[in-house]
């Protein structure tokens, strides 16, 4: 796997997962209320919305590997 | 007949007709009945996957938990996202392995990778047993829709039996290809309904979502943070549940096999990138549950909150539309789960056990028999062991997520053999059953399924270390060169 997926791609995809889950105990509060949403709900919703961005970056990092295509069996 | 019930019946009938037309002509053999003859285009494959994302769980279960539990329900918004992130790395190598070895089902994968019929049989059993509560959830949801739409004229038990009968007829007449087309109706109707009521109901009673949430915070200041309306579902429970269900997301036989039908591995990654956005309607479902809590508190069954509030707030025809969308949202996944599970038992358990060559007709008959048996099991549980809808899906995940270590290690670690995976699975399942039956769920503030998964992984790793010292270099297993 380490050879198959470059490190930076792995990091980019894992950021939203780790932030969303590990942040829950700290985000477990009502204030500040933003756009009417209490902070806890905003935290979860925000990371769900950001995940496609981070995954797209991970995808592009995979695709831009010098002699392989994204996800191609390159060995 | 009440207006809503009339609209619901019309909705279900139209869906059934689409199912019959969509199934096409020709002889039905097991391949065709269950996997559409393996000639599905990309659109149809996508529909089949998406068809299982929105179920009664999202529609009635999520609003019910938003109503009764509050913040712990937020896990439902989060776990799919974790599942998609995992799939970004996990599904492409699974796809490559399946393509190289010609695999069609999840037990095929375990058999090819671990070369152990015992493990493959265990995987079938865990898959089918985990699917039963998932099915029970759909039948219970259908029952609630029928009961409420009939204004109580049909009792809840009779309503569940009606839901079961409708689903069985739907499977027999449509087959998987027909069901895939009904899934289009289902998702469109469901999203229209959720957008209309998710924005409309808070606006109708409070003048907007923000004002509704402000009123909720004023009346129930603890409802929107963990542990919400519960005493046991703190941040630890939510984290362990998100991890359990996120890891289990692609462990279901049907979601796992969706990787096999993709055109290429890049398609799987692209899907993972955009799919989290498909979770957003869940937020609107929460809003409906919150509004219901403020407008009609004290419902005996929180899972009926959405239906009750819609029935009270909209004209009969629209309540019927929402009920019809809900009914199809239960029928389509129930039909897909039934077809998938019965085919799995017939092909990966019954056929290997019978050893000799079986004709396609024989297998087809067996598959239909298993389908009925699984459906009856779900029906019996729905009638005599009712649970909250969300709890039912968590039960399913408690079981199915136990396959995660075997899948991940099978894909990424070459030296893993069958024995550690089997022992881990047995240990994990035993812990889950023990904790739930003895009333220790959550255990130490953590989801019991997650505790089982930790035990499962630990046993697997420890046995792996022992086996590997016993057999230097580990056994060579086919299918690991990925």
Describe this structure in words.
The complex is a heterodimer of chains A (75) and B (482). Chain A is mostly helical. Chain A is built from 3 helices and no strands. Residues 67-75 of chain A have low confidence and may be disordered. Chain B has 482 residues and is an all-alpha fold. Helix content of chain B is 75%, strand content 0%. Chain B is built from 20 helices and no strands. In chain B, helix 7 crosses helix 8. At the A-B interface, helix 1 and helix 3 of A face helix 5, helix 9, helix 10 and helix 12 of B.
Short description:
The complex is a heterodimer of chains A (75) and B (482). Chain A has 75 residues and is mainly alpha-helical.
Topology of chain A as a string of helices (H) and strands (E): HHH
Backbone structural class of chain A: mainly alpha
Structural class category of chain B: mainly alpha
Largest sheet of chain A: none
- CA radius of gyration of chain B is 22 Å
Assign an overall shape of chain B: globular
Distance between termini of chain A? Answer: 12 Å
Give the helix tally of chain B. Answer: 20
Number of strands of chain B: 0
Strand content of chain B: under 5%
Morphology call of chain A = elongated
Instruction: Considering residues with a beta carbon less than 8 A from a beta carbon on another chain, report the largest interface and each chain's count.
Output: A-B, 40 and 48 residues
Kindly report the average pLDDT value of chain B.
87
